[in-house]
């Protein structure tokens, strides 16, 4: 939540307030902007940040007892992980992320920038992990958040993944609270490849028959592929309620936990839903699509088709199960799926509209 006149951000006449900054999880398309922003704000503070939510190494739970300091050999291993991770991040510019977006100082991690800036980190959770099982509802100045993801089970998988990585380097790798662990852990998670999935071939579909297209898509729910990425499972997802408006932010969270906690929250309607994982079919199951009662759906991608986001089947489920409701889909980039949905007959019969940005122009959504 940002309050104040954004035009005056760096004028020196006014310092706006960011009540809460949420970085959902460690993934290149979720943290690069945060890295650049925090580095600049640390150099010359132009926004006051009251709290940051982000789960890092220091928030994971390990059964293994920690030592005060690790050995020099272990330090070298962690430094090697940091070097490889930093090189990987600098290569992202070749995959469509501009060098300007990743021009943070050599070796910067989100954890190090949060510590450097002295920002209150997971304060609402007493400095521990943002975890829906530890606290389901958080009250802020003028808004509330119901935490949907992650839970202890999803976070535990991160701990196991990190220990497995360390044991490959040294069987009895020690753990400590030294800052180098935060950096090495973050760079390791950043380098993990997202599982490739088989997406639908939408280019050969018959645009004249939305009914068969939709039914064909939703009939696949019996053998639905469901996201099992450890990193995506750690996503911080929540319902935000402000001024009688209800916004649902799904990050890249797993649909099983989202369905469970949306049912627990017992909220029937949302003013806006930001679809999970850029509209990937593995994150919008039939069960989830049935309870996403909203007038507005946001689909955020980076404009690159490497993962075929958003997937037609994912949006088809939402359109089909919310067919009695007039709804709008907002795309920040034109994609194959957004082009396919620009069908006047489909829009009329299934009560939806599409708004497609060029990826550069700001799109205002009124609720």
TrEMBL record:
InterPro entries hit by this protein: Competence_DNA_uptake (IPR052159), RibonucZ/Hydroxyglut_hydro (IPR036866)
SUPFAM superfamilies registered for this protein in UniProt: Metallo-hydrolase/oxidoreductase
Top-rank taxon: Bacteria
Protein name per the record: Metal-dependent hydrolase, beta-lactamase superfamily II
